[in-house]
Design brief:
mainly alpha; two-stranded antiparallel sheet; 219 residues; globular
Length: 219
């Protein structure tokens, strides 16, 4: 069997890179193993767990103005600081907790985003009373196949920062008193939690995420 080399390996579509074993992945996770693990096992795979959904909405809010890798590297610090994103516990945080968190170097020490997280935890409890769970509320905004691009190429991916569904969800969340939930933040949440699958065509995780979605029971 001929050994695969850089000269003999088939060219990958734009936006993909291959690791040493030849596994193709989306370009954005190339920088470090932890980022590749996040890409391979989390990003784009459907989630129904309220804690994880709340965590992601909060962390996307903290990410505003920063890179996601910065937030990912601090994720365990955020989890420790915010009671593992248990909405009931975070909703009970008071002024002393805000001051504690502003001094916590393990997270992004942005007072507005910290107070927003506490406020949004309280809003999660409101949603649960109305819809039963944050998951049930969020998955109501999953777009139909007809509302999605036919193929996710690098060129198409460059245009995907918001969508009609993310705009609608953002507008509704703001009406309900949420903050730091603009359409771009909400779209990034949808990408990460599997409401949309934006793995590029040819990425090995795209088919795995599609299979997970086919087996997923919408809350």
């Amino acid at each position: 069997m001929q050994h695969m080399t850089a000269e003999t390996a088939p060219a990958l579509p734009e936006g993909l890179f291959a690791d040493d074993a030849g596994c193709p992945r989306c370009f954005w996770c190339q920088s470090m193993p932890g980022y590749r693990h996040y890409h391979d096992h989390e990003w784009g795979f459907p989630v129904a767990d309220d804690r994880r959904l709340f965590e992601k909405l909060c962390l996307e809010g903290f990410q505003s103005g920063l890179s996601w890798l910065t937030i990912l590297n601090k994720r365990e610090g955020f989890r420790a600081a915010f009671a593992n994103f248990d909405a009931e516990q975070v909703a009970a945080f008071g002024p002393a907790d805000v001051e504690r968190l502003v001094q916590d170097a393990a997270i992004v020490r942005h007072r507005g985003k910290i107070t927003s997280t506490i406020n949004n935890a309280q809003r999660v409890l409101d949603l649960r009373r109305e819809f039963g769970s944050l998951a049930h509320y969020a998955w109501r905004y999953e777009p139909t196949a007809a509302e999605r691009p036919g193929r996710i190429t690098r060129e198409v991916a460059r245009t995907l920062s918001t969508s009609p569904a993310s705009i609608a969800m953002s507008k509704d969340l703001k009406k309900r008193g949420w903050s730091f939930v603009g359409p771009t933040t909400v779209y990034a949440f949808m990408q990460a939690m599997g409401l949309v699958n934006d793995h590029l065509e040819g990425c090995h995780s795209r088919a795995l995420a599609l299979k997970a979605r086919a087996e997923f029971v919408v809350p």
